Amino acid sequence: MIMKKIIILISALALWVSGYSQRTCGSELNMEYIRQTDPVKYRRIIAWESAVQQNLRSSMKYTSANKIIIPVVVHVVYSSTSQNISNAQIHSQIQVLNEDFQRRNADKEKTPTAFSNVAGSANIEFRLAKVDPNGNPTDGIIRTRTSVAVFTPKANNVKFISTDGSNAWYTRYYLNIWVCNLKDDL
Fold first, then answer.
1. Residue 18 domain-assigned?
2. 40 assigned to some structural domain
3. pTM (two decimals)
4. Separation of alpha carbons 27 and 39, rounded Å
5. Residues 36 and 82 both lie in one domain
């Protein structure tokens, strides 16, 4: 009897784990829905993605020192002038990000000893994007005035125009960073 209960418990656990691990990406499900319900829109999206790939191949590249250059777009979503941070502040934070990834940061001596033998430059450089998804010049900073005073991190609503935020640029080619007033519920 105990063996039967153990087998049932293990079987239930195995089913639960396998069901949990098969979660799929929402964007893939959405694209499949669009493909089935609106083939014209689906073809436009595929064509747009192809054009983006062609326009941005030069944006993410290796330099002669095998450094990976990652184009960054910063979405500043603000409801008051105090939330609308300056370009200088954005440039400063990109510099700090690069210093951290190249291990040139001021507190690098505080690296735990367990990691000191592997700590070093990641050969990655972050640069504000120079070309937008349509191939137009940009400074890599998108400013969006919003009626939302405080965004909720769990809902990710700052990342969508439909919820008064700012849509991500194609994530395969850009690192998107959102700056906004967040509710403290992490």
1. no
2. yes
3. 0.63
4. 16
5. no
Question: Which pLDDT belongs to residue 21?
Answer: 42
Distance CA(52)–CA(58), nearest Å, equals 11
Whether the Cβ atoms of residue 20 and residue 28 lie closer than 8 Å to each other: no
Task: Give the chain's end-to-end CA distance (angstroms, integer).
Answer: 45
Nearest partner of 55 among 125, 127, 137, 126, judged by Cα:
137
Closest to 71 in 3D by CA, of 121, 167, 120, 139: 139
**For range 107-124, the mean pLDDT:** 81
156: left (phi over 0), alpha (psi -120 to 50) or beta: left
Q: Give the separation between CA 170 and CA 73, rounded to whole angstroms.
A: 10
- Give CA–CA dist 91/77, Å, rounded: 17
Q: Are 77 and 178 contacting, i.e. CB atoms less than 8 angstroms apart?
A: yes
Location of structure tokens 């994007």: 129
**Separation between Cα atoms, residue 176 and residue 167, nearest integer Å:** 9
> Is 5 among the domain residues?
no
Side-chain-side CA neighbours of residue 109 (13 Å): 1
Domain check: are 96 and 153 in the same one?
A: yes
Q: How far apart are CA 183 and CA 84, in angstroms?
A: 17
Q: Which residues contact 83 (CB under 8 A, 6 or more apart)?
A: 76, 180, 181
Does residue 130 surpass a pLDDT of 50? yes
Flag whether 19 is in a domain.
no
